[in-house]
Amino acid sequence: MDGILLRNIISDGKDCDIYIKGNVISDIAPAGAGRPDENYEAVDCRGKTALPGMINAHTHASMTLFRGVGEDICFQDWINKIWAEEEKIDDEFIYWAAKVACLEMIRTGTSAFLDQYWRVPAAAQAVREMGLRAVLSYVHLDHYDPATADRQRRECQEVYEESLSWPSTIGFSVAVHSVYSVSERQIVWAADFARAHGLKLNVHLCETEKEVRDCRASHGMSPVAYLDSLGVLGPDVIAAHALWLDEDDIRILAGRGVSCVHNINSNLKLASGYRFLYNELKGAGVNLCIGTDGCASSNNLDLLEAMKTAALVQKAWRCDPAAMPLDELFAMASVNPAKALGICSGRIEKGALADIIIVDTDSSFFLSRAPFMANFVYSAHSDSICSMICDGKFVMRDRAVPGEDEILAEARKVLSRLD
Amino acid sequence: MDGILLRNIISDGKDCDIYIKGNVISDIAPAGAGRPDENYEAVDCRGKTALPGMINAHTHASMTLFRGVGEDICFQDWINKIWAEEEKIDDEFIYWAAKVACLEMIRTGTSAFLDQYWRVPAAAQAVREMGLRAVLSYVHLDHYDPATADRQRRECQEVYEESLSWPSTIGFSVAVHSVYSVSERQIVWAADFARAHGLKLNVHLCETEKEVRDCRASHGMSPVAYLDSLGVLGPDVIAAHALWLDEDDIRILAGRGVSCVHNINSNLKLASGYRFLYNELKGAGVNLCIGTDGCASSNNLDLLEAMKTAALVQKAWRCDPAAMPLDELFAMASVNPAKALGICSGRIEKGALADIIIVDTDSSFFLSRAPFMANFVYSAHSDSICSMICDGKFVMRDRAVPGEDEILAEARKVLSRLD
């Protein structure tokens, strides 16, 4: 077989045939109008809708097995608990936790993600085996300890070299944990390293009010201004959270071309805040994405759930029911993160990467006269996503993901060893 | 067969056998310890968890087919659109829309609900056929028109008389739409009628800031004080929304024994507000419940989703990650609404009504060291609910609900006639 033909699938409101050859969408034709071709595996998609696979712009995949470690506690207590847990992890933990994360992302419609964690090669192996697309970053978090900083620089360099042999679906990038947990020297080194090698740089930025207050006390400026003063910010930087911003911060982020990632569920659950300045950031021209954060805070990897919550919370605190329109919301989970990550996906069009989810609308949730996207975001759940193609191959078909039982069993073993 | 035996099911953290005889839980024994009895249909529930069927304390079931009628518009524009749509509906619409609502409730774990709408006998037939439990209220909404008021009093009386022959699973009650849409004379009549016949009374109360402002302008007092001045409030009253309250309102609601229903998704989406005064209401001793509101606003009937959003939003605006603890949250969807509605359910214990949901924890969402309820609310989705027993009978088994295809097909026909 040369490829896959999705027959009679709704895309952009039209009944289409979508041809996939290799890892790209090779053609989109009106349903039935295309050439019959025996070299394509034809899949009957009547009554189903195609969307680009969603892209999670900020997560920590291997923290999926830290889900539930600290429930209903404040950010500072929570992160201390997480840091204590992280002392225990090894490659096996990372590998199986990343597999669980990929399984959960596949089942909830996410075909690509930007990750920030350690032991990146073990995660890369898991992602490769699960067939997803990812940009995996090595995170610098030295707690101002020079020995840790040295080790992390060495490890970062090693993983970068290893990443040169990774498949095209998996990219490498660099992360700085935050302005409050990484020494200035290390921040600068990481940013220089990323720039020197053409890599993305991601960072937790202005997540809590305390972070901003402490940074102003230590450095006399906001975290955004501080990073900018170090020459860190630029179009390859992706800032997660970006919640506690002032006008100057927004001007700097827009001016430097930084992408920002809204992580609503994590911000709400840790009581970090809820007033994400969507209108102001968008108005300034910032590329805006959505993410789930890691399962230790959010507590799942379901972007559809995050989209609904983001839209509803934005409407409520702004007293504006039209806030965060649906097309812009879906862009935050598709074209915008694709742009941030520099990957040719997030849209269904000829020549784009074949990362596609197939939505089954044969349920009560789609009984409505509203546009598809309203039903998908406001009414349905991610279990309406029945199949996913990533990089031209099915990774889920009719809700079945190969290897699911083994992944759950092995993950339980890993979890039992943590106690 | 005499009944159902749920073998090896986790309830309250313990491995149990749950015996169901007729419509009640007749016994709960440690797993394997009970008498083997051929008269029970034994269902193997290993690896599954039993919870009481959830109770939706405020919805408009037949508005499920108004889903998507007005997206992303403000409350006043939205309700005007709804009222225009409601001119078109007939018994057939109500019947099939209520069937869709029941289907959706079953699939998301809700076994009982308090409804507020018209053409109640058509809805009652649908609920009976679907096997759910409900209290269905006839809603007074006269728009200050005496002829409408007369007709509604007559209809209310007629439905009440008809309701005397309904099965034990379906109760009748009375509703007053709101202080801004119903004449004073009608409000008093409805409250007197309810009291005279021992019926519950439910009302939309303090849903928007405008409602409170207008009521103060018209009556010189808040909607709560206004209803109290009319002698309406008492322990049989269930107030939906209760969002824009002051200290005096809370004192009155607590003093009268009114139950309040939090409808987070509806409040957020219509930008009505988000500061539900959970701590203050609970502190005053008010019985607090959770609801989804109708699908025209919220846009689904998924209580589990509503619970997560309610908890997360409460944590965020209070800057308190411990706000709305999980056990209290689940009580708002189980024992509290059971108390409000006067039904012996909402808990799994000997003698209670056999309204039970069975949760399949064999998925990534339950891979966690957190307590079950944290995983259920924060991580999982309602599709983890695999089966439901209502009034002693299975209404969903392994995600299959009898008649689902026909319901969806008939609902599509009804919808197509609306355009």
Walk me through the structure.
2 copies of one chain form a homodimer. Chain A is 40% helix and 23% strand. With 419 residues, the first copy, chain A, is an alpha/beta fold. In chain A, strand 15 (385-390) and strand 16 (393-396) form a beta hairpin. In chain A, helix 2 packs parallel to helix 3 (120-130) and helix 2 crosses helix 16 (404-418). Chain A is globular and about 65 Å long. The first copy, chain A, starts with a strand and ends with a helix. In chain A, 59% of the residues are buried. The mean pLDDT of chain A is 96. Chains A and B meet through helix 2, helix 9, helix 12, helix 15 and helix 16 of A and helix 2, helix 9, helix 12, helix 15 and helix 16 of B.
Helical fraction of chain A: 25-40%
Low-pLDDT windows of residues of chain A: none
Task: Specify the number of helices of chain A.
Answer: 16
Task: Tell me which oligomeric state these chains represent.
Answer: homodimer
Gyration radius from CA atoms of chain A, angstroms: 21 Å
Report strand order across the widest sheet of chain A. 6-7-8-9-10-11-12-13
Mean pLDDT of chain A: 96
Could you tell me the strand content of chain A as a percent range? 15-25%
Describe the global form of chain A: globular
Biggest interface reads: A-B, 67 and 67 residues
Q: Give the biggest sheet of chain A.
A: 8 strands, parallel
